[in-house]
Amino acid sequence: VSTQSTGNSIVSQILPAILLVGVCGMVFSLGITFYALAKAITLKESLTDVTSHYILGVWGFMSLKWSFYLFQLSRNHARVFVAETEDAAPFVVEEVIPEADEV
After folding, report:
1. Averaged pLDDT, groups of 10, the chain, 103 residues long
2. CA 36 to CA 40: how far, in whole Å?
3. What 3-state DSSP class applies to 102?
């Protein structure tokens, strides 16, 4: 029983951290994407140039996609985890009290 409760507390501590990583990754990736696209447009770089800022914008968008995926999966896992822990019956030991006739 103690292993299960220790595992639950570890999961309940890690899930918010994973959510935070996903949100920070989305914000950072979105900023990089907009910065790279704005820089490429203002410098009038070619779309076919491999060293242009457009490539950075594409990688920023790819990072945004994976950060959102990380956030979404960890949020869904948190919902399932909370539903499972609420549905689980607590470990209860019933105390047997002898009746006065049996003593």
Report:
1. 57 84 94 96 92 94 95 87 68 60 61
2. 6
3. coil
What are the tokens at 3? 């292993």
From CA 22, how far away is CA 6, in angstroms rounded? Answer: 25
Name the residue among 64, 66, 60, 63 with its Cα closest to residue 35: 60
pTM: predicted TM-score of the whole model, two decimal places: 0.68
Residue type, 27: V
Using an 8 Å Cβ cutoff, are 29 and 57 in contact? no
What is the sign, positive or negative, of the torsion defined by CA atoms of 31, 34, 36, 42?
negative
By the 10 Å C-beta count (0-12 exposed, 13-18 middle, 19+ buried), 67 is classed as buried
Burial (CB count <10 Å: 0-12, 13-18, 19+), residue 56: middle
Residue with tokens 């049996």: 102
Which helix (H) or strand (E) segment is 30 a member of?
A: helix 2-42
